[in-house]
Amino acid sequence: MKPASFHYYRARSLQEALDLLSGAAANGKLLAGGQSLIPLMNLRLARPEALIDLNSIPGLSYIRSEGNKIAIGALTRHREMEFSELLAKELPLLAEAIPQIGHPAIRNRGTLGGSLAHADPAAELPCVLTALDARMVAAGPDGERVIRAEDFFTGFYATALADHEILKEVRIPLDRHPAGWSFVEFARRHGDFALAEASVLLFADGAGDRCTSARVVIGGSVEKPVRVQDVEKLIQDEISIRTQASSLAHVLRRVEQLTETEIRSSIAGRENPDYLCHLTGVLARRALESAMERWRKA
User: Is residue 58 included in any domain, yes or no?
Assistant: First the structure.
């Protein structure tokens, strides 16, 4: 199928895109990589009156270190992120997740900002960037504002972006380096939409022996990324690098159970909720196991 008719605008600057979004193309959509929007338009599941093409705007594609944070431009392609030595060194959790986004053809065109603004609950980046406590920089008619990842995603395909705002940049803090990390997901085939996914970060004390805090975020099966704070507290209270195998096995079982409990109410209306609860709990357990293994090898 082909899309319904629409007006096409090619923005040459961020300000021009903002002006179009507030004026001639007020009922339109922003076009970045187009890997989600164009298929929806071709199937006529989306019928925007206009498209504002952002791809000619200079200065929105970059990955750079800025002191105690990494800044990534919204038009940065997934492929650039996948092969970034800076991300591999400083943000290994993100580097681990990027190759699991679709297929190479999709990563060649798909953009960071497009994926985040689309807010597909099965996407990898919302889950990972919530775990990394990223900040989203939104540009609007009244200037810029910064939104924490936990507040940015508000529901199924929904974000905190206002109607006339454009996601400009993502900032990821580097104030703490994780002792262990892991991202895991389950899809029927590689490249398919994830049925469930889990991100785990472990932070240790100065000696590197005891877990002082953890961030555990699950996605895929829920309408937006969810921090499982009961699991985080359990890990902080019970885990150290010297945790015996029998004790660790008990903690892992509790992680699985607590994760299932946390998400059960939020997926009650979905198909096969018992299966999704169990699957998500298993992935949270496996992610913690993998993060622990990396911590021990460090």
Answer: no
Residue 64 burial (C-beta neighbours within 10 Å; 0-12, 13-18, 19+): exposed
Tokens in use for 158?
Answer: 């929904």
Q: How far apart are CA 280 and CA 285, in angstroms?
A: 9
Verify that 111 and 212 share a domain, yes or no. no
Q: Which of 131, 151, 172 is the endpoint of a domain?
A: 172
Query: Could you tell me the CATH number of the domain that includes residue 139?
Result: 3.30.465.10
The residue to which tokens 């509790």 are assigned: 254
pLDDT digits (tens, 9 = 90+) for 182-238: 999 999 888 788 999 999 999 998 877 889 999 999 999 899 999 999 999 999 988
Distance CA 180, CA 199 (A): 11
d(CA 172, CA 151): 15
d(CA 176, CA 272): 38
Looking from the CA of 136 toward its CB, the CA atoms found within 13 Å total 29
Contacts of 90 by beta carbon, 8 Å cutoff, 6+ apart: 65, 70, 174
Q: Which two tokens stand for residue 208?
A: 């590197």
**d(C-alpha 132, C-alpha 127), whole Å:** 9
